[in-house]
Amino acid sequence: MSTRALPPFDPRDPLGIDDLLSDEDRAIRDAVRQWAADRVLPHVAEWYERGELPVIRELARELGALGALGMQLDGYGCAGATAVQYGLACLELEAADSGIRSLVSVQGSLAMYAIHRFGSEEQRQRWLPEMASGQVIGCFGLTEPDHGSDPSGMRTHARRDGGDWVLTGRKMWITNGSVAGVAVVWAQTDEGIRGFVVPADSPGFSAPEIRHKWSLRASVTSELVLDDVRLPADALLPEAIGLRGPLSCLSHARYGIVWGSMGAARTCFEAALDYAGAREQFGRPIAGFQLTQAKLADMAVELHKGILLAHHLGRRMDAGRLRPEQVSFGKLNNVREAIEICRAARTVMGANGISLEYPVMRHATNLESVLTYEGTVEMHQLVLGKALTGLDAFR
């Protein structure tokens, strides 16, 4: 039996998950964590309270310089990072705020990924370098006012007119919409659902911002209005036909959420752990009471199980073996558990848990949106149900 001394127990990494990371993994994680600490954490409570992200364009350029935009893609100014490295970046960004991770996810995993995977070489050369640098912000137009979980029923339509396409319709709940320089828009055509690269300065295109949100307040969310937007033939994404295109983009974005949600959960767990050690009641820190320790233990177990799950899915993605059903597994579990960790942290912190002086309530309300977008709980349950039984319960 080995007599080597065991490493000390780390309350913030109780399973020693850091041992799974390479030096490059840690360097990327630490760089993103430091950027978020310097540029987001000092201001995010104020942005959240005001319901705006006033420096989004500055942040996008800084994230581009950091290599975080489209970082999982190859070429065209993208970093070519591994799936695990991209996941670690998402975790650190959402540890600051879900709105910041959403900015990066929509830019890289939806808009840039769609152009990279389904676009022409001319489209890639035109858009991806500027999007990777953050000079151009992108958005992804799939969800509509009456069609969220069932995108096949979308009403946005594109018709041919000579050599052009003419797009008409509306999209809803679009992250980055009103600050985007380009939108990837999905529409019904006589050939099925197709994707289009729509410059934001196209006549007939507008993106009014959605106000009065109580979640993801430090984020730009918009409606897209397409009023007979005329596009040249080469605006069509040539390799995307049918729902396969947008659904593969969503699967890529959901993978980032598997990691990101654990970042929000980690912040809330650590806030509760620190608070419990400092807060005294009945003559001693509340961390010394059994019920508080039970909450902290349960939170730690679910948090680090979720991080291990994210790592496992990342390794599968890097090996080219990650199935969409497995992404649904991760999204369903990790976001649901992250919300429960936030709620438990709030109870540890009592009334202080609802104050913006602490991050817990901000993360809890943000995660209510994360729970819904990129597939609701019910949709992911049905994806897994179909995979487990072979029977389709969607219809």
Automatic annotation (TrEMBL):
Q: Name one GO molecular function term.
A: glutaryl-CoA dehydrogenase activity
| Annotated Acyl-CoA dehydrogenase/oxidase C-terminal domain residues | 242-388
Q: Does the keyword DNA repair apply?
A: no
Q: Which GO terms describe its biological process?
A: fatty acid beta-oxidation using acyl-CoA dehydrogenase; fatty-acyl-CoA biosynthetic process
Cite the entry's keywords alphabetically: FAD, Flavoprotein, Oxidoreductase, Transit peptide
Among InterPro entries, the record links this protein to: Acyl-CoA_Oxase/DH_mid-dom, Acyl-CoA_Oxase/DH_mid-dom_sf, AcylCo_DH-like_C, AcylCo_DH/oxidase_C, AcylCoA_DH/ox_N, AcylCoA_DH/ox_N_sf, AcylCoA_DH/oxidase_NM_dom_sf, Glutaryl-CoA_DH_mitochondrial
Q: What is this protein called?
A: Acyl-CoA dehydrogenase family protein
Matches recorded under SUPFAM superfamilies = Acyl-CoA dehydrogenase C-terminal domain-like, Acyl-CoA dehydrogenase NM domain-like
> Domain Acyl-CoA oxidase/dehydrogenase middle spans what residues?
139-229
Q: Where is the Acyl-CoA dehydrogenase/oxidase N-terminal domain?
A: 22-135
Q: Which family does it belong to?
A: Belongs to the acyl-CoA dehydrogenase family.
Which source organism?
Streptomyces morookaense
Signal peptide, first to last residue: none
Identify the cofactor(s): FAD
